[in-house]
Amino acid sequence: MNKKLISLITILVFSLLVLAGCGSSGSQDEQKAANDTIKIGFLGAKTGGHASYGLETLKGMKMAVEDINAAGGLLEKELVIAEGDHGSKNSEASIVTDKLISSDKVVAIVGDPTTGLTKIAAPIAQQNQVVLLSAGAVGTGVVEIGDYIFRDTLLDALAAPAVTKYCAETLGWKKVALVTSINNDYSVGLSNIFRDALKKYKVEIVTEQQVKDGDTDFSAQVTNLSGKQFDGIVFTGYYTEGGLFMKEVRKQGMKQVLVGGDGLLSPVLWEMGEGAVEGSMVYTGFAPDPNTDNAKTKTFIDKYKSNNDNKLPDMFSAQGYDAVMLLADAMKNAQSSDPKVFRDSLAQTKDWKGVTGTITIRENREPIKSPVYLLKVAPASNGNSWEWKIQAAIPVTAE
Amino acid sequence: MFWQQLINGITLGATYALIALGYTMVYGIIQLINFAHGEIYMIGAFVGVMAVIVFKVNIFIALLMAIAVCILIGVSVERIAYKPLRRSTRLAPLISAIGVSIFLQTLMTLIAGPQAVGFPQVIDDQLYHIGSVTVSKVQLIILFLASVMMVGLQLIIKYVRIGKAMRAASEDYDTASLMGIDVNRVISFTFAIGSALAAAGGVMVGMYFNSIHPLMGVMAGLKAFCAAVLGGIGSIPGAMLGGLFLGVAEVAGVALGYGGYRDAIAFTLLILVLLFKPTGLLGRPIQRKV
What we know:
Radius of gyration of chain A: 24 Å
Oligomer: heterodimer
Shape of chain B: globular
Structural class of chain A: alpha/beta
Largest interface: A-B, 37 and 33 residues
Number of strands of chain B: 4
Strand order of the largest sheet of chain A: 7-6-8-9-10-14-15
Strand order of the largest sheet of chain B: 1-4
Radius of gyration of chain B: 19 Å
Number of domains of chain B: 1
Helix content of chain A: 40-55%
CATH topology of the largest domain in chain A: Rossmann fold
Strand content of chain A: 15-25%
Mean pLDDT of chain B: 89
Low-confidence stretches of chain A: 20-28
């Protein structure tokens, strides 16, 4: 009995010693790694409904990190990405942000690609004084959260009026139907901007319909449209619902096309909508323009294509690339990877040339990015799918 | 406009009714809310898509394949997850059902990926104009198939031996088994029929709304459960009525401009009906068995 007890205690003590040994050697490794690297966090979805935004952003970020490390690293250190996947869940976003800051010890976070989740993550980054640069949030009320919060996107507040002007003056639209996804922050905000812009350019809204993210049945809303006369549908939600909505529109025999923000920008739009979305127009801060005169853009497109079976990059990968580059340039200018220091040089960015165009950070930390591309869904050259065709590049100015 | 919206509502309601039948039949016999039932519906939709895309079969053959696979899964779920718990507390099989539901969702997410999958266009966009109302071919097919299945179910339960056994088992499970009814077979058969109807509902919803998703069974299952309770759980005509009622009410809400509240409508209705008629629209009054 006594012998047993003693041997048990001995085993316990030994195992504790071994465990303690493991712990200390591990933290030494970490210490060493932290001294040679600068960590940037990726916050986004690699799974779930918004996965196509997150995965593309991450692809762009990885390309930027490769380019920086190939050119000797950043401030003589290696740049690495800590990946945080929240699976498109609001509830997970804050947990993942916490983890990036407290256990991965990142100096900056790129993300989230959506406005709604950025608004959840931003207060946490602000509180911990870590720079958060969203490579996708375009709605209102993001940078207002605090002076560590930035974005490198084309703002809806600037883009939607530019696109409305184009629809009214170049396409001659007089009447539209407005469709909002009301459980989606981004969509509700964008609809408000469109409402003002449509009024300004004297386009009448003949009817407003509400849908929800996750809906698959749009028959009732589309039936409500069917009695009305209008030139186009302004749809402010995301691609899945956009594609299904248009399918229902064609099913009920209407011929109008859809116009909307970059929330619709994904091949899923035609995977869901098929022929029904042909002619639909989506605006975006980046388009892989084959005739671009921006050398940076050309290099980026070529490199992306060779890495991805000749596929063209989308806005999210380009903005993800620019986000990392913008952060790296800010750290270089400040000669520091301390967020409290390089935050200031990031805020002073002026006429910075990236792969997505020209970016200036205004005094209120909101970016002005030019131009806005209006893309149109057209049949692909191989005939059995669809692709984006550049309809127009509209210059953007601050009002 | 009114008639058009009514058709939209009835089409949606018919799919709810098909799923609700599975809930109500199982509850009628073993007093179990089979929360995995929504997942059977989801799997039906995925098997349908796979049959159309991979095996390139006609949609009706795809429907039969989905039904066959779902019967197999539905019956096995009962054997594996519910049968061993039949004599335990009522809570145990309920928790087991939730476990099966999460397992099947996750399994399908692993197999098919987390994104919504487009259901290929299998039926042309033919529209029929009847007065001011436009009905699509898909809507007609759904209404026709759903009616055939519901009438067929009624006939089986009224006139076929196994259907009579189902009714007997639902009346009094123990006595039925004392009278020589093989209740295990009856229960398996009930799960088979319920799963077949859910599979058919899944394929139809897929081809009507053109989109399926590994988590589509959650909300549809909850709504169908509402429909079953609304109509009076345990009552087969009640499930049909409840489904149609719910579909029409939901579409009416959306048509009036409250699209954001479409899910809330179902649950509000449920609360209202239960407040005034606790046994549901066609439910039997609760009798305490002596």
